[in-house]
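User: New here, any thoughts?
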Amino acid sequence: MSIPDPAHATASGQCPPTAPLATIAPVTPNAPTVVASPLVWREGRHWYERRRLERLVRRCFTLDHGARIRHFLPRLFGLWEGDTPLAAVGAGRASEGSLFQEHYFDEPVEAFLSHHLGRPLDREAIAEIGNLASQRRGLQRRIFVPLIDQLVDDGLEWVLFTATPTVANGIRRLGIELHPLQLADPTRLGDEQAGWGRYYEHQPRVMAGDLRLAHRVLTAHGLLGPARPVEVDHVPRH
Protein backbone atom coordinates (compact mmCIF):
# COMPACT_ATOMS: atom_id res chain seq x y z
CA MET A 1 0.00 0.00 0.00
CA SER A 2 1.38 3.40 -0.93
CA ILE A 3 0.92 6.77 0.72
CA PRO A 4 -1.50 8.91 -1.28
CA ASP A 5 -0.71 12.40 -2.50
CA PRO A 6 -3.58 14.53 -1.13
CA ALA A 7 -2.66 17.59 -3.24
CA HIS A 8 -0.49 18.49 -6.18
CA ALA A 9 1.36 21.71 -5.27
CA THR A 10 5.06 21.60 -4.47
CA ALA A 11 6.02 22.07 -0.83
CA SER A 12 9.12 24.04 0.02
CA GLY A 13 12.30 22.45 1.25
CA GLN A 14 12.65 19.78 -1.40
CA CYS A 15 16.17 19.15 -2.61
CA PRO A 16 17.55 17.24 -5.60
CA PRO A 17 17.76 13.47 -5.13
CA THR A 18 20.99 11.83 -4.15
CA ALA A 19 20.33 8.96 -6.55
CA PRO A 20 17.95 8.26 -9.45
CA LEU A 21 14.41 7.66 -8.21
CA ALA A 22 12.22 4.83 -9.38
CA THR A 23 9.71 5.82 -12.05
CA ILE A 24 6.98 4.20 -14.07
CA ALA A 25 8.50 2.99 -17.32
CA PRO A 26 6.71 3.56 -20.65
CA VAL A 27 4.41 0.77 -21.68
CA THR A 28 5.63 -1.05 -24.77
CA PRO A 29 4.26 -4.20 -26.41
CA ASN A 30 5.29 -7.40 -24.64
CA ALA A 31 7.23 -5.43 -22.02
CA PRO A 32 6.31 -5.47 -18.32
CA THR A 33 5.46 -2.20 -16.61
CA VAL A 34 8.00 -1.25 -13.96
CA VAL A 35 6.31 0.45 -11.02
CA ALA A 36 8.02 2.47 -8.30
CA SER A 37 8.30 0.84 -4.90
CA PRO A 38 5.65 1.95 -2.39
CA LEU A 39 6.66 4.55 0.15
CA VAL A 40 6.71 3.30 3.74
CA TRP A 41 6.51 5.43 6.88
CA ARG A 42 8.79 4.27 9.66
CA GLU A 43 11.13 5.53 12.34
CA GLY A 44 14.90 5.38 11.95
CA ARG A 45 15.27 2.86 14.74
CA HIS A 46 18.77 1.63 13.94
CA TRP A 47 21.79 3.92 13.96
CA TYR A 48 22.36 3.52 10.22
CA GLU A 49 18.74 4.41 9.42
CA ARG A 50 18.95 7.48 11.62
CA ARG A 51 22.20 8.50 9.91
CA ARG A 52 20.48 8.33 6.52
CA LEU A 53 17.67 10.54 7.77
CA GLU A 54 20.13 13.02 9.29
CA ARG A 55 22.09 13.18 6.03
CA LEU A 56 18.90 13.93 4.11
CA VAL A 57 17.98 16.74 6.51
CA ARG A 58 21.46 18.26 6.44
CA ARG A 59 21.66 18.10 2.66
CA CYS A 60 18.26 19.66 2.03
CA PHE A 61 18.76 22.50 4.51
CA THR A 62 22.19 23.22 3.06
CA LEU A 63 20.89 23.32 -0.51
CA ASP A 64 17.73 25.27 0.30
CA HIS A 65 19.00 27.72 2.92
CA GLY A 66 22.78 27.45 3.15
CA ALA A 67 22.18 26.10 6.66
CA ARG A 68 24.36 23.80 8.75
CA ILE A 69 21.98 21.67 10.79
CA ARG A 70 23.42 20.29 14.02
CA HIS A 71 20.26 19.90 16.10
CA PHE A 72 18.16 16.78 15.55
CA LEU A 73 15.03 15.84 17.44
CA PRO A 74 14.99 12.68 19.58
CA ARG A 75 12.96 10.66 17.08
CA LEU A 76 13.43 10.81 13.32
CA PHE A 77 10.87 9.36 10.91
CA GLY A 78 10.90 9.03 7.17
CA LEU A 79 9.04 8.07 4.03
CA TRP A 80 11.21 5.26 2.71
CA GLU A 81 11.55 3.73 -0.72
CA GLY A 82 13.26 0.50 0.21
CA ASP A 83 16.32 1.49 2.24
CA THR A 84 16.34 5.08 0.96
CA PRO A 85 14.54 7.87 2.83
CA LEU A 86 12.90 10.35 0.46
CA ALA A 87 11.46 12.60 3.19
CA ALA A 88 12.22 13.08 6.86
CA VAL A 89 10.72 14.70 9.93
CA GLY A 90 11.67 14.72 13.61
CA ALA A 91 9.56 14.73 16.76
CA GLY A 92 10.12 15.22 20.47
CA ARG A 93 7.91 15.23 23.55
CA ALA A 94 7.79 18.25 25.84
CA SER A 95 7.57 15.92 28.85
CA GLU A 96 11.04 14.56 28.08
CA GLY A 97 12.97 17.83 28.11
CA SER A 98 13.09 21.40 26.83
CA LEU A 99 11.88 22.04 23.30
CA PHE A 100 13.76 23.89 20.60
CA GLN A 101 10.65 26.04 20.10
CA GLU A 102 10.98 27.30 23.67
CA HIS A 103 13.90 29.45 22.51
CA TYR A 104 11.26 31.81 21.16
CA PHE A 105 9.17 32.09 24.35
CA ASP A 106 9.62 33.82 27.69
CA GLU A 107 7.78 31.05 29.50
CA PRO A 108 7.37 27.26 29.25
CA VAL A 109 5.48 26.07 26.21
CA GLU A 110 2.55 24.74 28.23
CA ALA A 111 2.04 28.18 29.82
CA PHE A 112 2.34 29.97 26.48
CA LEU A 113 -0.12 27.65 24.76
CA SER A 114 -2.53 27.73 27.70
CA HIS A 115 -2.64 31.53 27.49
CA HIS A 116 -3.14 31.40 23.72
CA LEU A 117 -5.90 28.78 23.87
CA GLY A 118 -7.59 30.15 26.97
CA ARG A 119 -7.56 26.83 28.80
CA PRO A 120 -5.07 24.73 30.78
CA LEU A 121 -2.80 22.42 28.83
CA ASP A 122 -0.44 19.85 30.32
CA ARG A 123 3.16 19.66 29.16
CA GLU A 124 2.73 15.88 28.72
CA ALA A 125 0.21 16.55 25.93
CA ILE A 126 2.61 18.59 23.77
CA ALA A 127 5.12 17.57 21.11
CA GLU A 128 7.31 19.52 18.74
CA ILE A 129 8.30 18.61 15.22
CA GLY A 130 11.15 19.77 13.02
CA ASN A 131 13.96 18.54 10.75
CA LEU A 132 11.45 18.53 7.87
CA ALA A 133 13.05 17.73 4.52
CA SER A 134 12.25 15.96 1.27
CA GLN A 135 13.86 15.24 -2.06
CA ARG A 136 10.75 14.58 -4.11
CA ARG A 137 7.92 16.86 -5.09
CA GLY A 138 5.01 16.99 -2.66
CA LEU A 139 6.44 14.67 -0.01
CA GLN A 140 6.79 17.33 2.68
CA ARG A 141 3.03 17.69 2.74
CA ARG A 142 2.34 13.97 2.44
CA ILE A 143 4.56 13.14 5.40
CA PHE A 144 2.21 15.01 7.72
CA VAL A 145 -0.51 12.37 7.28
CA PRO A 146 1.33 9.43 8.92
CA LEU A 147 3.12 11.85 11.28
CA ILE A 148 -0.17 13.03 12.77
CA ASP A 149 -1.36 9.43 13.02
CA GLN A 150 1.86 8.52 14.84
CA LEU A 151 1.66 11.40 17.35
CA VAL A 152 -1.99 10.73 18.16
CA ASP A 153 -1.14 7.04 18.59
CA ASP A 154 1.53 8.17 21.07
CA GLY A 155 -1.15 9.92 23.14
CA LEU A 156 -0.18 13.50 22.26
CA GLU A 157 -2.71 16.29 21.79
CA TRP A 158 -0.90 19.40 20.52
CA VAL A 159 2.08 19.91 18.25
CA LEU A 160 4.37 22.91 18.00
CA PHE A 161 6.66 23.76 15.10
CA THR A 162 8.24 26.55 13.06
CA ALA A 163 7.08 26.80 9.45
CA THR A 164 7.78 28.99 6.45
CA PRO A 165 4.69 30.34 4.67
CA THR A 166 5.04 27.72 1.93
CA VAL A 167 5.16 24.80 4.38
CA ALA A 168 2.24 26.22 6.39
CA ASN A 169 0.14 26.61 3.24
CA GLY A 170 0.89 23.01 2.28
CA ILE A 171 -0.36 21.79 5.66
CA ARG A 172 -3.51 23.90 5.38
CA ARG A 173 -4.22 22.34 1.99
CA LEU A 174 -4.73 19.07 3.87
CA GLY A 175 -7.62 20.81 5.66
CA ILE A 176 -5.67 21.15 8.91
CA GLU A 177 -6.23 24.25 11.04
CA LEU A 178 -3.07 25.95 12.29
CA HIS A 179 -2.64 28.45 15.13
CA PRO A 180 0.03 31.04 14.22
CA LEU A 181 1.65 32.10 17.50
CA GLN A 182 4.42 34.55 16.58
CA LEU A 183 7.31 35.18 14.24
CA ALA A 184 10.34 33.01 15.00
CA ASP A 185 13.02 35.47 16.15
CA PRO A 186 16.48 34.14 15.22
CA THR A 187 18.22 36.47 17.66
CA ARG A 188 16.88 34.31 20.46
CA LEU A 189 19.01 31.40 19.26
CA GLY A 190 22.27 33.00 20.35
CA ASP A 191 25.32 31.44 18.72
CA GLU A 192 23.10 28.91 16.92
CA GLN A 193 21.68 31.63 14.69
CA ALA A 194 24.68 31.62 12.35
CA GLY A 195 24.13 27.98 11.42
CA TRP A 196 20.69 28.61 9.91
CA GLY A 197 21.90 30.39 6.79
CA ARG A 198 19.05 32.06 4.88
CA TYR A 199 16.24 30.15 6.61
CA TYR A 200 14.93 33.11 8.63
CA GLU A 201 14.76 35.30 5.52
CA HIS A 202 11.54 33.37 4.75
CA GLN A 203 9.82 34.82 7.85
CA PRO A 204 8.97 31.49 9.52
CA ARG A 205 6.36 31.51 12.26
CA VAL A 206 5.96 29.41 15.36
CA MET A 207 2.68 27.53 14.98
CA ALA A 208 0.58 25.05 16.90
CA GLY A 209 -1.91 22.43 15.82
CA ASP A 210 -4.58 20.35 17.52
CA LEU A 211 -3.52 16.78 16.73
CA ARG A 212 -6.82 15.10 17.51
CA LEU A 213 -8.76 17.58 15.40
CA ALA A 214 -6.28 17.14 12.55
CA HIS A 215 -6.63 13.37 12.86
CA ARG A 216 -10.41 13.62 12.56
CA VAL A 217 -10.09 15.83 9.48
CA LEU A 218 -7.68 13.44 7.77
CA THR A 219 -9.91 10.50 8.65
CA ALA A 220 -12.94 12.29 7.20
CA HIS A 221 -10.97 12.89 4.00
CA GLY A 222 -10.19 9.18 3.75
CA LEU A 223 -6.46 9.64 4.36
CA LEU A 224 -6.57 7.84 7.71
CA GLY A 225 -8.74 5.08 9.11
CA PRO A 226 -9.16 1.31 8.90
CA ALA A 227 -9.02 1.32 5.10
CA ARG A 228 -6.33 3.98 4.73
CA PRO A 229 -3.99 3.45 1.79
CA VAL A 230 -0.94 4.08 3.98
CA GLU A 231 1.76 1.62 4.90
CA VAL A 232 2.99 2.55 8.37
CA ASP A 233 5.24 1.06 10.99
CA HIS A 234 4.31 2.69 14.28
CA VAL A 235 6.85 2.38 17.06
CA PRO A 236 5.16 2.08 20.47
CA ARG A 237 6.45 4.11 23.39
CA HIS A 238 8.05 2.10 26.19
